[in-house]
Amino acid sequence: MKTRVGIIGATGYTGVELLRLLLHHPGVEVTALTSQKYAGVPISQVFPSLTKRFQLKCEELAVEQISKKADFIFSAVPHKTAMEKVPLFYRSGKRVVDLSADFRLKDPEVYERWYQKHTAPDLLSESVYGLPELHRDKIRGAKIVGNPGCYPTGALIGLIPLLKKGLISPEGIIVDSKSGVSGAGRDVVLESLFCEVNEGVKAYKIFAHRHTPEIEQELSLLAQKKITVTFVPHLIPMDRGILTTLYVHLIKKMNTEELLNAFQEYYDGEPFVRIFPKGKLPNTKDVRGSNFCDIGAVVGEVDGRAVIVTAIDNLVKGASGEAIQNMNIMLGYPETLGLDVAPLSP
Ligand SMILES: NC(=O)c1ccc[n+]([C@@H]2O[C@H](COP(=O)([O-])OP(=O)(O)OC[C@H]3O[C@@H](n4cnc5c(N)ncnc54)[C@H](OP(=O)(O)O)[C@@H]3O)[C@@H](O)[C@H]2O)c1
Fold first, then answer.
1. Residue 287: count of CB within 10 angstroms of its CB
2. Domains of the chain listed by start with CATH number
């Protein structure tokens, strides 16, 4: 029997990406979609790309109604709304993957510093940070998964093996990321308008981006000591994709091949992490529409500096693809189910 799935916030970029991918998933049936603006409207009218593919109507986010129709919930609404709704689904016995930031941070005080007061702090210890490459075993039994942010996914996958193996200094890590505009969601905001973004590149929210505490939380847990990073996000005029460049100091003397071998060894068997050979660096074009995270690296062999580059699609491995990967783990499906699509080309 197929799992009945509800998508809360189905008319956003991550919501429709969930739908696109889940339509290929043999183990699930999407039985409920919510939207405030488009309640009563077929999803194919909101997204003409779904015409002749999926006709379900959107409905209001009424927890009781949705709970009758769905066994598993993807929450793709903004933070704060998620914090209000996810606990209600949880209490009605549903398992939830939440794509917002509301169940990622473990410390309610840290959450309050970067967002606002948390209204369900008791569930923060219950929820699991949904990076499969780091927390697969915990995700299996989780009732609520806080799906990672898009920037943290690219940064953490590039740093975890090196920190875990004690190959890099935990001090002075620089995370320099470039994101496509869909990272900001589908809501109309001035900064995302075509003329504001096209033909330009800008850094923003230096030392102030809300994904900073998330990256630091996971690195600190891994290293068992407080780690801070210099995180600088940039906006790039493309629809989707995040390229992250990580600047680190090696503790052990090693060359580029040895560093790449360390990645290869750590991610052996990971279905969605691809390590590039020496001389080849990732490009967001090579992961578009897919759940892959590509990794390349170069060691500056004179003074122990190394640069790691990762590329993901922010809407797939950085959001909806990772969310489905988490659902697969939670429900005991093969992890790649519904996700074994090749990247778009070009
Ligand atoms: N975009 C990314 O690359 C990305 C990556 C990782 C995580 N995320 C996170 O995923 C979540 C969704 O992001 P998105 O980019 O898909 O956002 P989005 O394009 O702005 O879509 C938001 C969705 O939530 C619904 N919604 C908004 N306010 C609501 C409210 N008060 N009550 C009920 N529904 C409401 C919207 O419905 P209507 O407008 O139709 O009413 C829409 O379906 C956010 O928490 C975001 O931080 C996004």
1. 29
2. 3-126 (3.40.50.720), 151-313 (3.30.360.10)
* Strand 128-129 relative to strand 242-249, pairing: unpaired
* Phi and psi torsions of 10, nearest 5°: -75, -15
* Ligand 1 pocket member 343 (CB < 6 A): no
| 171: three-class secondary structure by DSSP | coil
**3-state SS class at 202:** strand
> Does residue 211 contact residue 152 with C-beta atoms inside 8 Å?
yes
Beta strand 144-146 with 128-129 is: parallel
Ligand 1 lined by 45 (C-beta under 6 Å): no
pTM beyond 0.90: the answer is yes
Query: Across residues 173-198, what is the average pLDDT?
Result: 96
Of 7, 8, 14, which is best to mutate to test ligand 1, by the most ligand atoms within 8 angstroms of its C-beta?
Answer: 14
* Closest C-alpha among 129, 136, 172 to residue 152: 129
Tell me the percentage of the chain whose pLDDT exceeds 90. Answer: 98
**44-85: per-residue pLDDT in tens?**
999 999 999 999 999 999 999 999 999 999 999 999 999 999
3-state secondary structure of 30: strand
Distance 77 CA to ligand 1 centre (A): 4
- E-only strand ranges, the chain: 3-8, 28-34, 58-59, 72-75, 95-98, 128-129, 144-146, 173-179, 202-203, 229-235, 242-249, 273-275, 293-300, 305-312
Query: Which value, in Å, is the radius of gyration of the alpha carbons in the chain?
Result: 20
Cβ of 111 closer than 6 Å to ligand 1, yes or no, is: no
Bridge partner residues of 97 (DSSP): 74, 145
CA 146/CA 72 separation, integer angstroms: 14
Give one DSSP letter per residue of 291-316, joined into a string.
--EEEEEEEETTTTEEEEEEEE-TTI
